[in-house]
Amino acid sequence: MRNYLLGSLLTIGLSFSIFSEVKAATISLDFDRLPNQQGWIRESNRSGTAFSVDGTKLIQNSIGRGSFVKTFRMNNVIDPDKHFTLSFTARYLNQEVVSSTVSTFSFVVYLYDANRRFHLAFGRSAFQNRVDTSVFNDYRLEGSFSTGVASLYINDTFIRDFNTETVRDSRNFIGFGDSTYTANAHAELTNFTFTQKEISAVPEPLTILGTGTAIAFGAGFKRKLAKTKKK
């Protein structure tokens, strides 16, 4: 009986051995169509467009358009409790101050959730003295709204940590574009990907093998016990 119980417990123990499989929900941008043709919402203060695509990149050129604002956003795609990675490849070629030198965020990439935001603003920014923004660089922002902190990497080099900022917009969305009336810019994107990871528990391959082995051991113990009783 003791051997039988040992075999049964071995079976149960191995059956509950699991590992975490990471699944990713990803939003990415194509460059053969404008974002609003891919499900993004276009917001602008005037008609006409400052954006175009050429199959390999998205081009923003709002220079010469006065107090021009144009952004693209995708609503309700951020889970604030999950870790996110926002990566994009961009260059910032030119800027035109229109009405003020206070805010020159003429190209920005941002994440919003419930009066909080992370944003990377090209113009006057905390990282422009670290890299040449007029050439293509790989930018990566990793963090979560639950911690309120995100880390910026440029070309896989850590630059700095950002804390969430309090804002008046209570919506949940990701977005990019020319977000201010005070300046315009010529900028280009060749990659834009937002990923959030979710973890689900699934049986480990070795666990399945181990469970089968344990069952076989259990059956063996039972047969041995039955033979002992017959004797």
TrEMBL record:
Membrane-spanning residues: none
Residues in the signal sequence: 1-24
Keywords tagged on the record: Signal
Name assigned to this protein: PEP-CTERM protein-sorting domain-containing protein
